[in-house]
Known about the structure:
Layout: E1 18-23, H1 26-45, H2 50-67, H3 72-89, H4 98-118, H5 124-127, H6 130-139, H7 151-157, H8 161-191, E2 196-200, E3 204-208, E4 217-222, E5 228-234, E6 238-245, E7 254-255, E8 260-267
Antiparallel strand pairs: 1-4, 2-8, 3-6, 4-8, 5-6, 6-7
Helix pairs in contact: 1-2, 1-8, 2-8, 3-4, 3-8, 4-8
Amino acid sequence: MNTHLEPRADAEPQLAPVVYEQPLNERMRTFLRLEFLYTQATYHGEFDSPWSTRAAVASLLEILAITARGDSRSDVIKELERHVNVLKEYQSKTGVDPSRLKSLMSNLLKLREDLATIGGNYMGPLRDSEFLSAIKHRSAIPGGTCDFDLPDYCYWLTRPAEVRSAEFNGWLALIRPLCDSIAELLWLTRQNAKRKSEVATGGIFQLQFDRENPVQLVRVTMPANSDLYPEMSANQHRCTIRFLNWTNATTRPVHVELDVPFLLTCCT
């Protein structure tokens, strides 16, 4: 008799847990913001609607604004080199898959080479574009990109979807080496840490960090069906997590005083 039960066709799919992240330094904050905006830009860029194109362009312009405040390219190259050196240490350790390790290192080295090749002025064509600059300038005003404010933008948005897509993808290609590198770095940062089961006594959890092994990112994982979410305040030395109860958008969340189990990940 076959005792294996096939899942019911009408069974509800398992919802993925919700992960909340708190960066602990400015570099990590920048990386997370760029990851978020790049994901948003590529998502909206896949749709034909002019409204989706507007959203994609808005995300692209925010990426330009963030990268204008510092040398993100140099920061990413340094982080790629750091991770390459960390992976090199695993070459002499037992129990490590050499082919997997080689693949990871090759990918990091290629990303570093791509960033080095594009040079420091890789954003120049985007920053020098009068068309994008006008949209960026008007975007600071609520509703400032309306059709009557930017008739040239309105005209461009009425072009066939394939024309808009080709031009937008050309802009996106200029920032892709940076954003692909950041995506890989964040993946490694998240994967290299182990989750631990913890309990926030009375809805509050505090932890101290080891100064010899700095933490860059704190992650709290909660069940998808939970009515609770964490509010984190942290610096390089300590972190406090408070759990709040969500009811609806018109009611202020309140701190819960119950013991709250959750999964904690401290990424170095």
